[in-house]
Amino acid sequence: MDNKLEILKKRLIYRAGYRGTKEMDILLSSFVNKNINSFDKNLLNELEVFLNFEDETILNFYHHDIVEKDIDKNSISKIFKKFKI
Question: Minimal CA–CA distance to 62: which of 48, 72, 52?
């Protein structure tokens, strides 16, 4: 089980760092690298869902408080919204 969590963490770190835009690569990889080891299995699963949102949806939520596609219903979004680089 521990090995599965480590594989999940590596996958999430990779996904956060390779988004398609440099701004999102920096923002999400910084957030994930800072928090990933403090997340339990449930939060890791929520992070996986969060990372599946489109970059534009995440940026609009983070910078402009625009809520699309129920991003605000994700537990990670509340943590992410408070995150500053």
Answer: 72
